[in-house]
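Design request, tokens follow.
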């Protein structure tokens, strides 16, 4: 009797001594993510990858869609700061104009990860890590494929190329143009004769290609900064009574399923890969930051090039 009383009081003292927090479930990490919008197949796959990876990692994701507007992204980031999330990540629609809001995040002590696209700010301590593709390299890969293809066909004369650029001021539009032109410099017979933005969408890609075709009967090659614009342009080319992939060689970037389908139908010649599956890497990085680890400043995605000849074989392996 005496023993059990002593035991019970010892137990009571012990229970009081254990802090309540130690008994509660560990606090969930919160990640605020500002997405650009839903302009392309790539973007949809990117959003799905992030949402799924957050679920798998047990991270509380606050996901905000900016519908293509920088002001909405800035608002979303300010909202994340007010909610005191652990980490902020975003895919910046354009490169410039981020200093003020990034300074606000820094003063609040919230680390920022750039996902997919880079920003152009002088002070690079305003963000901790940039994960995504090397867009300049993608542009080079696209041009190198064209040079090899023309060599194979024995084409030596002038080749007129039209370009459908991505969103004006965005990192992939700037860099994909830069990489492509860099290779063209040593091939003076390859000329970009027309270049305009198609805003990374099918509708705009089609519209701009229609205008190109009306104004110019000498187009031999189309270089589109993403697959969606190329797919839109394919429709315009067909409606103009030409054969896409034959009368006009078409090169694009992303390598989404829609591009593989177009390649298998013989309408698209090549797609340079750009992977949208950044979710798992982003969740890893978020956890590392919360655990106090230092992230590499640059995390580059590994990617390849898929010409139409391999499309049917590769199609079943594609995840986006
Ligand atoms: O290529 C395009 C999308 O930023 C890499 O954005 C991304 C680009 C992608 O809309 O399809």
């Amino acid at each position: 009797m005496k023993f059990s009383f002593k035991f019970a009081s010892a137990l009571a003292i012990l229970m009081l001594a254990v802090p309540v927090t130690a008994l509660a479930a560990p606090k969930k990490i919160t990640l605020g993510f500002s997405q650009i919008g839903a302009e392309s197949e790539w973007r949809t796959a990117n959003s799905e990858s992030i949402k799924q990876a957050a679920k798998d990692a047990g991270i509380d994701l606050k996901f905000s869609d900016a519908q293509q507007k920088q002001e909405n992204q800035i608002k979303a980031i300010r909202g994340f700061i007010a909610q005191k999330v652990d980490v902020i990540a975003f895919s910046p629609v354009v490169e410039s104009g981020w200093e003020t809001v990034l300074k606000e995040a820094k003063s609040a002590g919230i680390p920022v990860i750039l996902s997919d696209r880079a920003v152009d700010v002088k002070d690079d301590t305003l963000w901790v890590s940039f994960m995504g593709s090397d867009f300049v390299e993608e542009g080079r890969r696209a041009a190198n494929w064209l040079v090899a293809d023309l060599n194979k066909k024995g084409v030596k004369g002038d080749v007129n190329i039209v370009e459908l650029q991505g969103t004006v001021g965005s990192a992939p539009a700037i860099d994909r143009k830069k990489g492509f032109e860099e290779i063209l410099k040593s091939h003076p017979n390859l000329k970009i004769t027309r270049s305009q933005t198609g805003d990374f969408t099918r509708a705009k890609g089609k519209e701009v290609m229609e205008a190109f075709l009306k104004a110019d009967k000498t187009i031999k090659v189309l270089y589109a900064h993403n697959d969606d614009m190329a797919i839109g342009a394919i429709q315009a080319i067909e409606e103009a009574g030409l054969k896409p992939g034959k009368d006009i060689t078409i090169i694009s970037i992303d390598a989404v399923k829609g591009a593989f389908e177009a390649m298998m139908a013989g309408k698209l010649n090549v797609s340079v890969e750009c992977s949208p599956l950044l979710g798992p890497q982003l969740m890893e990085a978020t956890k590392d930051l919360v655990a106090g680890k230092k992230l590499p400043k640059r995390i580059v995605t590994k990617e390849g090039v898929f010409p139409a000849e391999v499309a049917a074989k590769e199609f079943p392996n594609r995840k986006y």
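Comment from the thread starter after seeing the answer: thanks! Residues 135-274 form a domain with the Rossmann fold fold (CATH 3.40.50.2300).
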